Structure formats: C-alpha cells, structure tokens
Amino acid sequence: MPRKHSAHACTCCAMAKRRCISMPSETKCVRCQNRKEICTFKPQKKRGPKPKRVEFPSVETFSFNLNYKFLPDEAPISFEFQYEL
Fold first, then answer.
1. 24 within 8 A of 57, measured Cβ to Cβ
2. The dihedral of CA 72, 74, 79, 81: what is its sign?
3. Distances, alpha carbon 78 to alpha carbons 8, 18, 74, 75, in Å
4. 3-state class of 35 per DSSP?
5. 0.70 surpassed by pTM
6. What are the pLDDT digits (tens) for 24-75?
7. How many Cβ atoms from other residues are within 10 Å of residue 22's Cβ?
8. More confident residue, 72 or 22
9. Of 35, 26, 31, 36, nearest to 10 (Cα)?
C-alpha cells in the first residue's frame, strides 16, 4: 500500500522534526505507531488577510454635561471636579 505524506506533521513528528508518514487506512502515522504514541494534530492557523478593524466613533460625537454634580458615592474623574451637597 502506498504511503502518503500528510500536509502537516502531527505534534510528535513536528517536535522531533521528522517526516510524518501516514497510511491511508490508519489513523496514526508510522512513527507514532512504532513508538506507541498518541497521534494528534494541532489546529492550523487561518491564512489570508486579517479582518478589517471596526472603527469606533470619535470623542467629538459624544456630548458631556459639564454642569453635572457628582453624588457623594460617585468618584470624579480627577480632583479638579468638586461636588456640592
């Protein structure tokens, strides 16, 4: 039966930097069968362009109430702000 090189090596063959040869009828590669190891494959990274970033609205689009009075249990952003009781 002809041997087939897999597109990507299993984790054991990749760590040993060996060629991963698998038989079409077997679930394990030849090296893992001989060494009695578990033959597992890592998920491959996605290829291609990265998705475009979502742009957030700029600060100018938000409206702030500069006359807001902080309550005693609310913390102001900085110590410049003071609240009246």
1. no
2. negative
3. 55, 60, 12, 8
4. helix
5. no
6. 788 889 999 999 999 988 888 888 898 888 776 655 555 667 777 777 777 6
7. 21
8. 22
9. 31
